[in-house]
Structures are given as structure tokens and as C-alpha cells.
Amino acid sequence: MGRFGQSVDRAERIIIAFLMGAMVLTSFAQVVARYVFNTGWLGALEFTRVLFAWLILFGMSYGVKIGSHLGVDTFVRAFPKPIFRAFAIFGALCGVLYAAIFFAADWLQLFGLPTSGGAYSYWLRTFNTGIGLHELRYPEWAQQAFGIQARVHRWVVYFILPLGLALLAYRCAQAAIQIWRGEREMITISHESGELMDEETFAGTHEPSAASERDAAAAKRGK
Asked: Rounded to 5 degrees, what angle do the CA atoms 191, 192, 195 make?
């Protein structure tokens, strides 16, 4: 992984940790403020929803990076190793195509498809119109210092749409290269990891407890 990849990886982990922490702290503070002090932040719910949306779109690409997305690989594993690798690379490239289409579908017109728009054009539209959110507002000092409107601009919040899809395309392309080099098996969670999880679950649910062993020993003595 080069310097750029390390920077992206570090930024993703820091932002995801910040989003999760901010969600927990905001929800906790809102509960305390409402039920203890009979007050609260009017934009807390909308702010939490925004954080959750950012968390999902950041986690989408980070899940590809760590290989945590689930997948059905029973069919492709029936083929020889080279064909299986080709299927795995094809799956990763499909992820790149998926992200590219949702990022901006205008390029599909080159193939005669009547498509247009995408996450980038939608974000650009909100940037040009300057529409604000419903309840989330800038702090008073920011409004006075920068002369901005009261409501938070939608383009600030919706910036995660093109950013998240760009990160998803980057991670899928990175996974395709790693599969080609033999550094990883596939873009989804590996078959061996799934079997290991099943074995651990089975062992955990069927492992006899100390109480059951004592009961069995007592029953044998009774006989």
C-alpha cells in the first residue's frame, strides 16, 4: 500500500470513529438534556441522521477494504482456481462499475443509453441552489463571522454522496488489483472465515456447561 493508500485508510478509520463517537455523545446528551433539564437541541435528531448516513457511506468502502461484506461463493468455488480468480476480479470490477454509474451516469450515453445525472450532479445542484436543511443550523458566531445563512447548506451534508461512491470505486479497484496479485482471495468475506464463524458458533452453543456435567455425573451415581 502506497502513501496515498495509507492516508486514505487512516482518514477512513479516524472519520468512522469520530462519526460513531459523535452519534453516541449527541444521543446521550440529548436524553440527559430532555429528561433532566427539560430542554434539548432542536436539530439533534437531524444531526444524528446525517452522522448515520455518513457512517453508512464511509463504512461501505471500508467494508470492501477489510473484506467484511457477505457474499455467496458456493457456485464460483466449484471452478478451478484460475477461473475462480477471474470471477473474483469480475466481481470487484462490477463494484467499480456500480460506483461509477451512481457517481455520474452521463458517460453511459456513449453506449446509446438514455441516462443522466448521478450523485455528483445532484450534489452540484444543491451547491448551486444553496438550499438549507430543515432543523440543523449553523452556530450564531459562524453566522455573524462569515455572513452565512442560518440553516446548514444541504451541499455540505450531501457531499458524502460523491465522496462515498468515489471511495467505493477506489476500494473495489484496489481489491481487483490485490486479487490479481494473489494478495487476497475475493472482495467479500472469505469462505474459510465464514466456516470458522459457523464452527465457533456451533461450539459455543453445544459446549456442555459445568452444571450440566454435574447433573450427568449425579445421574450416573444414582443408577
From this structure: 90
